[in-house]
Amino acid sequence: MNIILLGYPGSGKGTLAKDLSKSLDMIHVSTGDILRDEMAKKTPLGLEASSYMAGGRLVPDRLVMDMLKVRLGAETRGLLFDGFPRTVAQAEALDAWFGTRGQEIDSVVFLNVAEAVVMARLGSRRTCTGCGKIYNVISNAPAKEGVCDACGKPLMTREDDKTEVIARRIQVYKDQTEPLLAYYRSSGTFVEADGGKTPDAVTKDVLTLLHAKP
Ligand code: AMP
Hints:
- This protein is of the alpha/beta class.
- The chain has helices at 13-24, 31-40, 44-54, 61-72, 88-101, 115-123, 163-177, 179-185, 199-212; strands at residues 3-6, 27-30, 79-82, 107-112, 125-128, 134-136, 155-156, 190-194.
């Protein structure tokens, strides 16, 4: 089974993907996490991607596709895409790539959350520097301020979760990623969940939707 998660930055895709990949034994493919890893290792791809990411713009499609093909070429388990595709060109490239592998996308899950809610969530999001667990200082704070409950490492504010970059990311989503809703809506694989609920409730709803699909 291969699944795509769609939704605004801050709609909860990352948190949902962590839960679903455990429940369904799938590979969580976060292109944002992979790119941040490349940046931390200062690889040529990471260095090229860093200026786009810091400014809240999308990394060019070609770089993202090449990176995924290298990372996932030999992978046979189900893929759970979080933050990919982000453009119609990426969706078309994914279809073409899956076509050559005899694979298909089984479900596209759209997490529907109001724009004002994601703006507020992104501003209060903190991410663990160790295990990547995601917190929110207002609605889902760690027991000890600034420290991850799960692994004890410090939490940080992502560079692109800073106020000045958030508005650009929202606009980029509307311009370049939102057209994917129309792309997938007619495909028969599209389901929609209310991403405004608590993380546990969203996971439960999505598992029900996935199991209910023919
Ligand atoms: P995310 O962690 O998914 O919010 O992604 C963080 C940043 O990484 C984005 O704002 C983009 O700059 C870049 N990025 C992640 N995924 C993609 C993608 N599929 N295509 C282009 N850029 C991406």
